[in-house]
Design a protein that fits this description.
Elements: H1 3-11, H2 17-21, H3 26-94, H4 96-104, H5 110-122, H6 125-135, H7 137-140, H8 144-167, H9 174-206, H10 208-211
Helix pairs in contact: 3-6, 3-9, 4-5, 4-9, 5-8, 6-8, 8-9
């Protein structure tokens, strides 16, 4: 290639590059055109790759965010259901004193009252709630402390119910029975308030921003 001519092109800003190129011999001109064509082809490939890669990254991010939103809402819905079931179990426990009174007054048989006790002992709602927290801990970590307290205190309540069943033998006075049955009730009462607190928190945290409202 004529280096003197290229030097002239570089130094003389007013010289038309195309005019100089057409003065090159055929083989040199073909080489220059091939280089330009290769350059623009490579540039097009780079731009296309960059655009495709950027779109893939954006799509992956959108898919991830969609998955998180859907899993969060699913977890919220299932967690609320489990809290509600736990609350119902605690309310049944709180009602034992009244059920005992009904039995003493003859409005409920001993067999029916005994079935109430067994139904509460065998109910796994609070255990299921605790296991669900462990299953989705990465999402529900904020509520783990309260649920752990609920689980441990409920274990105390069931122990008191077992004690009552062992205590409930012929010859016990009504007053003695009431003094024993009140123990699981006293444990259940603050736990009901705890479940109500959890219900409010989970709805506010997961649904409040969607509906622009809090409870």
């Amino acid at each position: 290639m004529n280096t003197g001519m290229l030097g002239e092109i570089s130094e003389n800003g007013g010289t038309n590059l195309w005019d100089k190129l057409i003065q090159l011999d055929g083989e040199t001109l073909k080489s220059v055109i091939s280089l330009f064509a290769l350059f623009f082809s490579l540039l097009a490939i780079v731009i296309t790759f960059w655009n495709v890669n950027r779109q893939r990254v954006a799509n992956l991010k959108n898919d991830t965010e969609k998955f998180k939103r859907e899993l969060n809402l699913k977890t919220c819905d299932e967690f609320i259901e489990k809290i509600f079931s736990a609350k119902q179990l605690l309310q049944r426990t709180r009602s034992l004193e009244g059920q005992l009174r009904w039995m003493i007054f003859g409005a409920k048989s001993q067999e029916e009252f005994n079935e109430d006790l067994w139904g509460i002992i065998e109910d796994k709602s609070i255990e299921d709630l605790w296991l669900y927290i462990l299953k989705r801990e990465i999402i529900l970590k904020k509520y783990k402390g309260d649920c752990e307290k609920l689980y441990k205190e409920w274990d105390r309540s069931t122990q008191e119910i077992w004690k009552f069943k062992n205590f409930w033998i012929p010859g016990r006075t009504d007053q003695e029975l009431f003094e024993e049955i009140i123990k699981p009730n006293e444990i259940a009462e603050p736990l009901i308030e705890l479940t109500e607190k959890l219900q409010r928190q989970i709805q506010n945290d997961f649904l409040g921003h969607i509906y622009q409202n809090k409870i």
